[in-house]
Amino acid sequence: MNEGKAFTASPFVDAIEPIAESADEIARALEDAEIPPLLPALAYLTGDLSLLRDDLRPDPLLGSLPQGGLTDEQLTAARALALDVLIGFRDGIYAATPPASEAVLLRIMEHAVGQTGLAAYLPLLSEELAVHDRDGRAPDWSRGDIAPETDFTVVVIGAGMSGILAAHRLQQADIPFVVLEKDRDVGGTWLENTYPGCRVDNPNHNYSYSFAQRHDWPFHFSTQSVLQGYFADCADAFAVRDHVRFGTEVRSAVWSDAANRWTIRARDALGNDTMIEADAVISAVGQLNRPLTPDIDGIESFAGRTFHSAQWDHEVDLAGSRVAVIGTGASAVQFIPEIAPTVGELTVFQRTPPWLIPTPDYHDEVAPGLRWLYRHVPSYSEWNRFWIFWKMGDASIEAVRVDEGWDRTLGSVSGTNELVRMIMAAYIEAEFADRPDLLANALPSYPPGTKRMLRDNGIWARTLKRDNVTLVTESITRITPTGIVTSDGVEHAADVIIYGTGFEASKFLTPMTVSGRGGVDLHEQWGGDARAYLGITVPGFPNLFCLYGPNTNIVINGSIIYFSECGVRYILGCLKLLLSGGHRALDVRGEVHDAFNLAVDAENRAMAWGVSDATSWYKNELGRVAQNWPFTLLEYWQRTLEPNPDDYELLG
Ligand code: NAP
Fold it and tell me: Residues 559-570: pLDDT tens digits?
């Protein structure tokens, strides 16, 4: 009898259900299984390490292929082994064993991903897996324990993914806080981006809080409404909502050297300004929240309707209209296939083609058998998260690192990068094989990893091949009242223009103004080149903490939720440092910040996105990569475990 319980403290995970199904029914469920994490989960559960057969170990080079590249014979053998174990569970022959020792856990992890040398990852991965049935990243202290007499309040700006998380942790540490949110609900980017086809391009098992896992994701890559529902559910489950002032946009934050406090000015929904005093400010405003409308001649003259993908105008009826879309980035490649069947004519203006990652299950619901396994096999869902975390995480970063000796005229930056390029090029060539005219414009010439690679299940090529869709690659010269003119002199008539042109990502913390020690303005200090220590703290701006700040974006390896979880732990560590030491504020030392940024810049120059000339939102107007984290996920975790007091000047 299987009496194991879920290996997670998540409020969204019910107790694992006992198996009552017949052998045939279990075998049918196994047909839908994601195999690479299955035997590790069963080995973990039963303690039977003989399940970790060498001949069934995934090849790390093939990790991103369906089923980790395992052959049909390997899949059949793994399913047969799993069937025996699950029948054994059902019949009480097997029982869940006590938690594995670290050595055993490491052995299982290394088998799961087909790699060795993971010892340094063990504590990080234990947190990711939540193997100890608890939230390993929660603060293990509270203000009541270390400074019960100290008043200390925090303002969090933004109630999106990072803001909800920060609020939850502050609440756990018993630190009073208020969240100021410009929108009418929580969710941030998942609230605002309502364009058709909007969905996450990172599997949900990975793109979710480590401490709020779900076993019942409806899709592998869920839609905007599912994600928005998830973050709303988290805000409710963690009782964060009551702390949020909705419809309140922060205008400025001013530090007082005399009081060692911040004064925040915010405008409420009625247009009234309100002042709030706080000891610390956590900016959780995101990087991708200010839509970028391009600077094109005549843009104001257009007589039709226009809107940006992140401000989708659902009032505009596109049916039968002539629609022009500018951009073929992550947003546009999701909404263009959705609107193509309903519009009259669709003209797609592409400046740079995207690389496509073949992802057959991109739009698929999670199959019934796989859902059944998540409900009945303890730890399977968590091992699946680990498997995704690894293959999409540090296992993939080498594929975009520059080999100085490599001939970059090939369109790649290293041997591994070339392999990735060849796989994706072969995919695109196959997709457009019957349309050489489109293929010529659909195949990128820049190295993979220079820009975000986009998931595709075949829908992009099918859409561009439609009779009512035209791909235009001549550059845009101007917009007229009736359409868009390109460099060949052609005017492309349009009733509606949709800007899929991305965000002002490098303008961190805009449009608010922030004034720090000595009245120094943050944006003047940055001069268009935002930098922070660990993406979190900025010299001269005490007790100002950024989440998803400069150089914390990842291009290929991992989920931004991971970065926010690490960042919030670090910020809570800073607050603990203050409260336990009787200090009021901390200010990162300039030399620590500068040394860190030098190292980041050097490493970014050694990555595909750093060396390529292709345009991307990863570079600011000065050409510096101000967005991306170039090191491993492990390194960010290690560096943000707790603050080093020597890195900071302690005030008050
Ligand atoms: P984006 O990646 O910055 O793409 C903007 C597109 O507009 C690019 O094709 C760009 O061309 C084009 N463009 C910009 N200015 C132009 C101009 N003046 N003339 C012609 N074309 C112009 O923006 P996004 O698609 O909104 O995505 C931004 C980021 O949001 C993504 O990288 C991703 O991190 C995130 N995102 C994620 C998801 C998801 O998880 N599913 C979905 C959407 C967005 P160039 O390529 O030549 O610059």
Answer: 999 999 999 999
Residue nearest to atom 5 of ligand 1 (CA): 501
pLDDT under 50: residue ranges of the chain: 1-7
Contact (Cβ atoms closer than 8 angstroms) between residue 482 and residue 303: yes
Model confidence over 369-410: pLDDT tens digits?
A: 999 999 999 889 999 999 999 988 899 999 999 999 999 999
Pocket test for ligand 1, best of 208, 446, 617 (most atoms within 8 A of CB): 617
Q: Ligand 1 centroid to 454 CA: how many Å?
A: 11
If one residue of 328, 459, 501 were mutated to test the ligand 1 pocket, choosing by the most ligand atoms within 8 A of its CB, it would be: 501
**Which of 55-60's residues contact partners 24+ apart within 8 Å by CB, and which partners?**
56/81, 57/111, 57/114, 58/112, 58/113, 58/114, 59/114, 60/113, 60/114, 60/115, 60/395
Distance 635 CA to ligand 1 centre (A): 28
Please say whether the beta carbons of 371 and 348 come within 8 A: no
Position in ligand 1 atom list of the atom nearest CA 309: 26
Is residue 286 helix, strand or coil? Answer: coil
Nearest Cα to Cα of residue 41 among 122, 105, 117, 115:
105
Which residue's C-alpha comes closest to atom 23 of ligand 1? 502
pLDDT at 125: 79
Taken in order of first residue, the domains within the chain and their CATH numbers are: 23-136+367-391 (no CATH), 150-186+240-290+505-651 (3.50.50.60), 299-361+409-499 (3.50.50.60)
Residue ranges of the alpha helices (H) in 480-627?
A: 522-526, 560-581, 590-604, 608-611
Question: From CA 286, how far away is CA 561, in angstroms rounded?
Answer: 11
136-150 confidence digits (pLDDT tens): 899 999 999 999 999
- State the distance from the centre of ligand 1 to the C-alpha of 37, rounded, in angstroms: 33
Report the alpha-carbon distance of residue 142 to residue 148 in Å, rounded.
9
Residue of minimum CA distance from atom 48 in ligand 1: 615
Residue pair 509/546 in contact (Cβ under 8 Å)? The answer is yes
Among 288, 450, 492, residue to substitute to test ligand 1 (most atoms within 8 Å of Cβ): 288
Give the helix ranges, DSSP H, for 221-326. 224-237
pTM (two decimals): 0.96
> Could you tell me the distance, in angstroms and rounded to a whole number, from the CA of residue 505 to the centre of ligand 1?
10
What is the 420 CA–ligand 1 centroid distance (Å)?
22
Quick one: pLDDT at residue 254? 98
| C-alpha triplet 393, 397, 403: angle, nearest 5° | 170
Tokens 């345009």 — which residue? 615
Q: Give the residue whose CA is nearest to atom 36 of ligand 1.
A: 330
Residue 8: per-residue pLDDT: 53
Averaged pLDDT score across all residues of the chain: 94
**C-beta pairs of 420-429 under 8 Å, 24+ apart in sequence:** 420/448, 420/449, 421/447, 421/448, 423/358, 424/355, 424/356, 424/357, 424/358, 424/448, 424/453, 427/356, 427/358, 427/456, 428/356, 428/461
Beta bridge partners of 492: 484
pLDDT of residue 132: 57
Rounded to a whole number of angstroms, the CA Rg of the chain reads 25
Q: Which residues line ligand 1 (CB under 6 A)?
A: 199-201, 288, 294, 296, 309, 326-332, 334, 349, 351-352, 452, 476, 500-503, 615, 617
Q: So what's the pLDDT on residue 3?
A: 36
Contacts of residue 491, defined as CB under 8 A and 6 or more positions apart, other chains included, come to 480, 482, 483, 484, 485
Q: Which atom of ligand 1 is nearest to the CA of 352?
A: 47
